[in-house]
Each structure stands twice: as structure tokens, then as C-alpha cells.
Design brief:
Helices cover 34% and strands 5% of the residues. The protein is mainly alpha-helical. Strands 1-2 form a two-stranded parallel sheet.
Length: 77
Amino acid sequence: MPGGAWHDLTLLRYSGVLSRLDPEADEGAMLDKGYVGARKDRPELPLFLPHRASRGHPLTEEQRAENGIIARYRIVV
């Protein structure tokens, strides 16, 4: 693995973690906003990603609520 900074999604693809998950065994992953695009790699997996706002397209109240639910499950302390 070359040195330097790696984007989260690039590192995820390089690591092969998603390829180890079995969709038939109901395995999935909860990811953060740095992994937008992971669904394109493994569309058969249940991947839970928060919604991202973009310029000129703020999040709806429903999207904010979904992000809150995902955040509560992702953060285990």
C-alpha cells in the first residue's frame, strides 16, 4: 500500500472489507458520508449511509431524521 493520504472510499475498496460481507446472511455495513459511492461497488449489500446535502439542495426534515437514526446506531460508546 503506497504512503500518503487516502480517501475513505479508496481505502475501503483497497481493503476488500465489503467483499467479505455475505448478503445472503443479511450482513451489511453502516458507513459515514465519506463512503458515498460504496453502493455502486456492492449494490446487493444493505449499506446504510447518511444523506448528504449539496449546494442548493438542503436536507429535508425526513432525511435529517433518518441521519439521526443512523448516527445513533453507528456511535457505540
